[in-house]
Amino acid sequence: MQVLVRDNNVDQALRVLKKKMQREGLFREMKARSAFEKPSEKRVREKAEAVRRLRKLARKKMQREGLLPMPKKAAVRTR
User: Fold this and answer.
1) Per the domain annotation, does 76 fall within a domain?
2) pLDDT at 79
3) Which residues cross the membrane (predicted)?
4) Which of 5, 16, 25, 46 sits in a 20 to 30 Å window from 52, CA-based?
């Protein structure tokens, strides 16, 4: 993973790096690897993640079909 530092602005580069790592799921993986997870706990977690993904897909499909209102757009922040 690579982040460019512009105008010696290390703080901004760190924010960008953290955001990229978050999107890649790196923090979640580091937390999972920090301690042993029992196989039964792993099954429960993976099942819950699958249910969450399916519900999200179903919600998006219903929004596209007009059965649910579309989510509100996030306000754009300007400097």
Assistant:
1) no
2) 65
3) none
4) 16
